[in-house]
Specification:
99 residues, mainly alpha, Arc Repressor Mutant, subunit A, 2 domains, rod-shaped
Length: 99
Amino acid sequence: MSQYPEQFRQKVLDLLAEGRPVKHVAEDLDLSMQAVYNWRNQEAIDRGERPGLSRVEQGEPAAAKRRIRELEDEVQILTRARDLLKEVPSPKGFTRPSR
């Protein structure tokens, strides 16, 4: 995810749509020109004007990986709980052994 808010990114794209050069927008807003070009290119992809993965499509694998990690953690917890339940203590506890 970008370190910039979506509203800021959209403002940059609006300035470009008004015809402002990438160099001026980048300098005025203290951004790298590459970031501005990347945002412009991604916007064209999101609108279907260029081939590539939209931001929604890019987010799906990240969300899936996050969910997989959560599920793996749950499996690990459940496996540990199962192992603990297998270790059944003696019902007599710590009493002296019988003679």
